[in-house]
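JOB MANIFEST
job_type = single_chain_structure
chain_count = 1
residues = 398
[input]
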Amino acid sequence: MPQSTRAAANNPDAEQQQATSCDGLLARLQQRARGAVDAPPPCSLRVPIAAYTDPQRLQREVDRLIHRYPQVIGHATQIPEPGDALVYDWLGLPLVTLRDKAGAIATFLNVCRHRGMRLLQNEGQASVRSLVCPYHQWTYGLDGQLRNIPRAESFCDIDPADFNLVALPTEVRHGLIWVQATPGDHMDLDSHLAGLGRDFDDFQLGDYHFCRQSVKDIACNWKLVQDAFLDGYHVVRLHKKTVGPFFPDALAETSVHGRHIRSAVARNTLLDDLALAPEALDRRHHATFSYTLFPNMVLIFHPEYTSVISLFPQAPDRTLFVHNMLTPRAPASEQERDHFERSFELIDKGVFEAEDIFVSVGAQKGFASGANDSLLFGALEQPAVQFHQFVEAALGEG
């Protein structure tokens, strides 16, 4: 584990405050801006190129991280009515998440238990009354139970209950739909979130509504995107024509919760309000909080909306970048709908695609040149190295 980049790491009271509350992290940012706390000390840390290019390593990451940790695959307001469904193969498995007649949300392997045929063919949102196999029309209810076998008399010694759809652990928490690709196992979200649920409650995340989604197939390793989101060094440089002017240069603080990394990046408004008492600071107005939820999710609280990003590795140099934008309410007018749509286009295409994804893909292309055998990270990028160390530790657990 690397040394903390926090200059006051030897102050137990300040460190404890920072580690346990958003407000403590924001207050520490204000101290940094006032010059009361030093910037992180210089360092040079390296991550080998093989971490981004080795196919065998990628398979271990999928098996031991992506399939074993809870994944966010959508928002409950995407499927508000019985029969509404999300069909996706993002985890390398054919899955369907749907709402049943009682209002519960569950996830099943999108596979008929008779001869293995895929049930719902097209990925994306759908609305169904039941799940009917196109091969022999075995029919399943919205609860995954086998309802009908045509010509059932042609089979002997079978119990229909043994042929229900295979369910995956699924839970709605803070409005987000969490799925774990471990049929038959328990998903312990309380343990996984390591106390961060309190933060999400404070941000009123559970009251937000789904607005827009984009799914991008991008030509880079999934961890390159995580590196970008954990790097405060680039904000005023890479994003100089978009969101960069809203931020001072590399003024950020982080705290670790389990293997999750919480980041607070100061906005210019914090510099304007240095005289405010710490308790008067506003989390969305004076900083941008982001959460790198281990292993492959990023949650960003923008001033007016929230971005939920999941990174699903498909190959060492290929990732599905799934971005859901959540808004504090459903649009109350066409004018408000247009405002949210423009906001989505700006952040999704103008910032994430044109800038963060652009440099991640560019770095992946650069690996083939042999110019580098490792990537260099300095003090302003150290949370990215911490993330890689968490990955190594989790892979080592088998």
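[summary]
Residues 100 and 142 are 5 Å apart (CA to CA).
The first strand starts at residue 45 and ends at 48.
exit_status = 0
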